[in-house]
Design brief:
With 346 residues, the chain is mostly helical. The chain has 16 helices and two strands.
Length: 346
């Protein structure tokens, strides 16, 4: 059940999951599926925001435990037929066996999964309580940098902590890690990936009323959130984009440190970390060069062919710290040069 569901709801994550050592696949895959189910609940646009929030909080209570089959079936009955994607309908129908699998995990893994999914639902709650409904015709923005930083922790940074705890618990070669310190670096790794997604998806999110770029920074640039719906506003708002590209680059420096902390013999774990780093930095490079970054018709997105080439090259490069430093460093430099060429470096 687990593998087929993961493959249907996230091809990108499924790649990373398949490369993980066997003992890590089940708890990490299950955590992803439960988080994806919560996200499906939060994103059910056929329901009013308040009703989605009610179902999300009910789902969180099931995660905190003990879970009730009746409560899970009630969530399934309320939401399944309102999903446009068949895979998401299957996901919601699979909640009882997924929760049964959660209960069968070893106690320590079960508590880690519960903790990370609860935290992730708080980020989804932040979406539902901060922004207007997708069809309201209004745009709201986070008030400041602290709000955006908090959001990136809740929806991704916390996964870095979870991932670190799981690796140390299940990988003898990593038992020497300082879990607290590596967890903090893992948080920045997660923030790097989420901030990349936020910046890439600005045009799409604006059209459902969500502006993750901080209001105080937009105001300083002389831009109102709703003006970002006009692609030509991109030039005026570019200093805000550039600032957050720099923040993302800083987080990716920690991601590189996280990658190289894995012993060379832990090739599977290295690749699972390396792939999102390279894809994230390549996305930032495209975004930094994209003068039409606010135009939904001009997305900053790497191609599938590019991804496959990176996967192939990584199999040869993954065991060398020197090659990885040069590879990751070259992509960071591409982002910086793109910012300099557009006149938006800090």
């Amino acid at each position: 059940m687990l593998g087929e569901l993961l493959k249907s709801v996230s091809r990108a994550f499924y790649l990373s999951l398949r490369i993980l050592p066997t003992g890590l696949r089940e708890p990490i895959g299950l955590a992803y599926l439960l988080a994806r189910a919560a996200d499906t609940i939060a994103d059910t646009r056929l329901l009013p925001t308040g009703e989605r929030l009610r179902h999300l909080l009910a789902f969180r209570r099931q995660i905190e435990g003990p879970a009730s089959t009746d409560a899970l079936r009630a969530i399934e009955a309320a939401l399944t037929e309102k999903q446009a994607l068949p895979a998401e309908r299957v996901l919601l129908r699979s909640l009882p066996p997924a929760f049964a699998l959660l209960e069968r995990l070893p106690e320590a893994d079960r508590e880690r999964v519960r903790r990370v999914v609860v935290t992730l639902t708080r980020g989804m709650e932040m979406d539902l309580t901060t922004f207007p409904g997708e069809d309201s015709g209004r745009v709201a923005a986070f008030p400041d940098a602290a709000a955006l930083d908090r959001y990136t922790y809740l929806v991704a940074g916390c996964v870095g902590e979870f991932w670190t705890e799981m690796l140390v618990a299940h990988t003898p070669a990593l038992r020497h890690w300082d879990v607290r310190r590596m967890g903090e670096i893992g948080v920045r790794f997660g923030k790097a990936l989420q901030l990349t997604n936020v910046l890439r998806d600005v045009p799409k999110d604006l059209r459902i009323g969500r502006c993750y770029l901080p209001l105080d920074e937009l105001t300083a640039a002389g831009v109102r959130p709703e003006e970002l719906l006009v692609p030509a506003t991109g030039a005026r708002a570019r200093p805000v984009l550039a600032n957050w590209l720099q923040v993302a680059l800083g987080h990716f420096s920690s991601a590189e440190e996280y990658l190289l902390a894995h012993p060379r013999r832990c090739m599977r774990l290295r690749l699972a970390v390396l792939w999102p780093i390279l894809i994230g930095l390549a996305t930032l490079a495209l975004l930094a060069r994209n003068a039409a970054w606010l135009d939904p018709e001009c997305p900053s997105k790497v191609t599938r062919g590019w991804v496959y080439r990176v996967l192939a090259c990584s199999l040869l490069a993954g065991g060398s710290n020197g090659i990885l430093r040069r590879w990751v460093g070259a992509w960071r430099m591409r982002v910086r040069r793109a910012l300099e060429q557009t006149g938006s470096s800090s």
